[in-house]
């Protein structure tokens, strides 16, 4: 079969101004989780103009959407996933403006080069990745039903075919004490702030005795109302992460025991709640990732193979990855070692260099999409790897195929 790369490269090149314009517009208008109204309008307007059937507000999420391009013959359903939420206080310090613009151009290029493709190409707009679990909610509410494979990419400080991601729990702890005058009669009070402080000390003491893969970190979101009042309420938002969901369950028991111990020691009480759906570790489909790397290499972009030495975060695409084959490669937009979720990453996400490498990744991603739509043997090999890999991760979550 004739390689689509030259044609895709030409189409993406024609879309260069639109990609840059969209990316910079989203960057200048950062919207946090589930508030991405401007981004959705910009994306869906462009998809509708290209002939996609747009459905907004799916899964009862106002800023979630799907856009479908139906092919000329029966075939699989392949999804390109877009993220477009920003970080509170930082903006696009995770580069989601590039994910949205690059994924959009990849989908437009694929249908422009092969409008008579088999099956269906879906663009799925997934809000609230940063702590909201938007993909998980959409998965649970049926948006991914019938999707055979899902693809996306992510900006980073290095270019990778895949990277492990940690299972994560977004935990809110609320300590309740007794208010009292902090000077006249502090003995009548019970300090919720002291309980929060003791809990954080307990977590720090725990670090030597948890596996190197464990992560517990967070912030105090409320520590009292006035310095002369013993705080009757203190609140913390904590992320607890581990390499697998099973290990996360075990770590959570210890973290919550530390919270109960801090409450007992200070004469307070504590309650906890998860503020977002639980994130699952990522099941990377290397058959797709390796094919993407071939396409990107043909465009001059080398993607490193995955390595345990690469640092890992968490993403709601992990939950999708135990239901269907998924890739989540990374593309370098800044010097190696630049911290993610930072002002440095935010500024890198608007540079000409970032837009150039996003164009390359969009071209490679479009080529992979066409492979999945029109090469049944390749899709079969993707499915076979998925069926073999998922039981070790989540034996009860395999998608029927």
Could you characterize the architecture of this molecule?
There is one protein chain. By secondary structure, this protein is of the alpha/beta class. The protein contains 12 helices and 12 strands. The protein has helices at residues 5-14, 16-28, 37-49, 96-113, 134-140, 192-206, 245-266, 286-298, 317-321, 343-348, 352-374, 376-393, and strands at 53-56, 65-70, 73-82, 118-125, 149-151, 154-156, 167-176, 215-222, 233-242, 269-274, 326-327, 330-332. It has a 6-stranded mixed β-sheet. Strand 3 (73-82), helix 4 (96-113) and strand 4 (118-125) form a beta-alpha-beta unit. The chain is elongated. Belongs to the peptidase M20A family. Residues 171-260 form the Peptidase M20 dimerisation domain. This is Peptidase M20 domain-containing protein 2.
